[in-house]
Amino acid sequence: MSQKFQASVHHRDDVSYVKLSGVIDEDNELTTLTDKIPSGTAVIDLGEIERINSCGVRDWVNWLGKLEGQATRSVLVECSPAIVAQINLVNNFTGNGVVKSFYVPYFCPECDEEKVLLVEAADMGPPPHEPPTCRCDECDLVMDFDDMADSYFAFLSNQKKIAEPDKINGVIKEFATSDQGEKSKIRSRTGTASLSASSVSSLPSVPSLPSISRPSGSSPQIAKPGSRPSMTPVTTTTQPGMRPVGSFQGTNPGSRPGFNVPGTNPGGVAGAGVVTSFGAGVVGERPALAAPKSSAIIYVLVAVLLAAIGVLAFLLFSSK
Which domain holds residue 280? Predict the structure, then answer.
């Protein structure tokens, strides 16, 4: 038997009690139950059917047709909201059978709780049908009916009478697995009654991006063109819980050769001489600006040239 679909069959005289639970889809095993159900009356408990798809509806209708072909009358009890929806949508979903009882869904907006209340079809009376009153277990307020009354109770207009109701009630009392009494009529729609949809896994949370911060009271320092950048160490503080952001070294476009400043993150201020502070660690003192080697060579050549001019001038004047 499939783990998604479970079934059990019990017999009492000419009445068979069939308990179905889980999902009725393309993997159902309804045909295997046909030979286990003799002619007579089949009480089919659908209270724990979570879901039924189009393939399941097709197999269900064909299965009821086979039972009717062997002179078996079907009585549907404890129809879950999923089954009630199909009864109203599919014209021959119940075949020649009859619905004895079904669950009515409710919702409490104050406590955000869902429940289903078991209702006898015979107790609903003539149309227009209104949902019975159901109170919340948490706040004791009247719960809201969680559907449209006209569409949910539409199948009751074609309701048939049940033959031998006392015998059927005796079989239900004997073989029903749930506890009897008032408590058995109310179930949690999201609990272990198998009436809730499959739980949806929570989406992974999106990690927050680290914020860019600088010391309070400070502002980006922009050096004037041609001026010597300040050698004052730039420090930052890291807020508790902030993820450190790695620092990168790079040369800003237009900066003087030989002088590297920390690169900026995307969206940061870019340009020559721009000093920014990041939300991690300490940016240490910058290296001193190194004089180019070519400048020293030029100074030496100029000094030699001036000395040569001086000697030449001295020789010219001394010869006169």
Answer: 231-285
